[in-house]
């Protein structure tokens, strides 16, 4: 607690023992003035700069305390810890039968909670794996044991994706020979990966001389591969495939085009 000398305004830190020694009358260690510490007594100091501490107003009636902490009972026997009571050599603690049964019931309930928590954790892990299945299926380390495991149980995983291993060998754009106002965009793509990978999603962008996008379209594997079995097998390592797309002519301003492969 803190109190302030009214003469020199020095603030002192004091304890309950110092307050009770002379009924809250204390002597200033700076100017030796004797003052009542209760008039400015506070638990915490206000933020700096500190001037005069507020003086507590005097009340005609004493405040009534309403939060009891402890009330001694003269008729109550002294409490003691049973573990501190002296025992004979032959005396041994005996656990009541009903307590043992209750402990076994609690252990069984705890086991049920632990088993339920494990089941929930496994279910949560399965949900996370399913949500991130695309990433796991394209991971080389995961596929090293997923493919043999799937082969043993007779299932088949989809091909992997790696757009960085796809090489655009050639590309061309020309007017459609039989449809007015249409273009034919063709390209050849090679799979440079050492594994068969899925046919990519092809994004074609047409732009003008200022590289401003005029038109953009995305084509899935079914838009340029007619055989569903070929789509399921994927593009073999080192194999090439031809891509042919028919698109509407956006106008004479479209002088450049760009290919982009997405997974």
Let me know the average pLDDT: 81
Neighbour order of strands in the largest sheet? 5-6-9
Tell me about the largest β-sheet.
Answer: 3 strands, antiparallel
- State the shape: elongated
Distance between the termini: 69 Å
CATH C-level name of the domain at 163-262: Mainly Beta
| Distinct helical segment count | 6
Instruction: Pick out the low-confidence regions.
Output: none
Number of strands: 10
- Summarize the amount of helix as a percent range: 25-40%
**Strand fraction band?**
15-25%
CATH architecture annotation of the domain at 163-262: Sandwich
Write the element-wise H/E pattern from the N-terminal end onward.
Answer: EEHEEHHHEEEEHHEE
Written account of the structure:
This protein is α+β, with helices and mostly antiparallel strands. Among the domains are: 2-40, no CATH class; 163-262, Immunoglobulin-like (Sandwich), CATH 2.60.40. Helix content is 27%, strand content 24%. The protein contains 6 helices and 10 strands. It has helices spanning 16-21, 97-131, 133-138, 140-153, 221-224, 228-233, and strands at 2-4, 11-13, 25-27, 34-36, 166-175, 182-191, 201-207, 213-219, 240-248, 256-262. The strands form 4 sheets. It has a 3-stranded antiparallel β-sheet, with no helix packed on it. Strands 8-7-10 form a 3-stranded antiparallel β-sheet. The chain starts with a strand and ends with a strand. The mean pLDDT is 81.
